[in-house]
Amino acid sequence: MESSLQNRIYDALREVIDPDLRQNIVDAGMVKGLAWNEKDRKVSLTVELTTPACPLKGYFAAQISQVIKQSLGSEWEAHTTFSAQSGRITRETLSQIRHLLLVGSGKGGVGKSTVAVNLAIALAKLGARVGILDADIYGPSVPMLLGLEHAKPAVREKEGRPYLVPIQKYGLEIMSLGFLVPHGQATPWRGPMASNTLRQLLTETDWGELDYLVVDMPPGTGDIQITLAQQFRPQGAIIVTTPQKLAQADAEKALTMFRMPLVQVPVVGIVENMSYFWTPELPERKFYIFGESGGRMLADKYEVPFLGEIPLLEKIVHQSDAGVPACLEDGTPISQSFMEIAGETVRALARLELVSAP
Ligand SMILES: Nc1ncnc2c1ncn2[C@@H]1O[C@H](COP(=O)(O)OP(=O)(O)OP(=O)(O)O)[C@@H](O)[C@H]1O
Ligand SMILES: [Mg+2]
């Protein structure tokens, strides 16, 4: 029976796991053009990869051959070919956004949101058109950081479809799920729904032309991060860490995730937050309460740029709570730190583009 043979082949192929995705190749949508010939005992298929240089080709071919023989009989042969990045991973047309820039980390509470909003402001101060998307749909914090707890985006029609209009403040175009759900309400969504909501928030906002859309990511290395990376092919990701060992271990996980063959988001560099405690009362002293230079060491280890460090300052907490990001004030040491980080980011992105240019 045709169909039961088909099922057996698919079931067999489901035993082949992509080690990076940790998902089987069938459910990951990597199997294309499956055909078989019962008389000749042959199965042929194409495995779709993100890059023609994928180091796993030999592994996949051997695994596929093995599972087919195991399931259908040792006389069966599998012929596997490979194709690179056609339809499966689509970069949605966010054609008006020149750089989609993720700000992530493995660990919660290291200051992603603080870095994301201040970096966005610093990029705008450098003269760029900048948006910020709060992708932390479980616990959006951008509205509070920008003093927009009660903002409600308007909706406008474009080519017959409704789009959300970003809130404008401090020279930024801003969108967050926090604007759409009642203030303080929890959003207990499951993975696929969360990913879909985020995708909608990104694609159904009328961003206009932007040089940078900075995305404040939720903590972790799960579904949301991988989906966003695969569907939208961001130009780069910045990883925020603190000098603490625990935070670095999680930052390494984030780095590894962004480098997985089917994710492949270029790492722009590492920002070290809460590098040392500094207080105006003792301006000559830096207190390295979480350890020293952890972020720089991580950057060296993975050969990515170190974009800069930000001290732990009481003022940052107050300014965050007041919805007035520290970088708004000109000429302070803290805004200088963010301006430097923004400059390094722009340069690192430009270098990445040079490398990836055809
Ligand atoms: N350099 C700093 N100095 C002092 N406080 C800071 C600094 N950076 C961040 N904070 C404070 O630490 C807390 C966590 O920061 P933030 O919300 O930016 O982290 P996060 O990584 O986005 O957290 P989450 O994982 O919950 O999204 C906030 O109260 C923030 O004001
Ligand atoms: Mg956050």
Provide an overview of this structure:
This protein is α/β, with parallel strands linked by helices and 358 residues long. The chain has 2 domains: 2-84, Fe-S cluster assembly (FSCA) (GMP Synthetase, Chain A, domain 3, 2-Layer Sandwich), CATH 3.30.300.130; 97-356, Rossmann fold. The chain is 35% helix and 24% strand. It has 10 helices and 15 strands. The strands form 4 sheets. The chain has an 8-stranded mixed sheet, with helices on both faces. It has a 3-stranded mixed sheet with strand order 3-4-5, covered by helices on one side. A two-stranded antiparallel sheet has the order 1-2. β14, α8 and β15 form a beta-alpha-beta unit. α3 crosses α10 (333-356) and α5 (191-203) packs parallel to α6. Mean pLDDT is 88; it is low at 86-93. Residues 112-113, 136, 141, 216 line the site of magnesium ion (MG). The site of adenosine-5'-triphosphate has 19 residues, from α3, β14, β15 and α9.
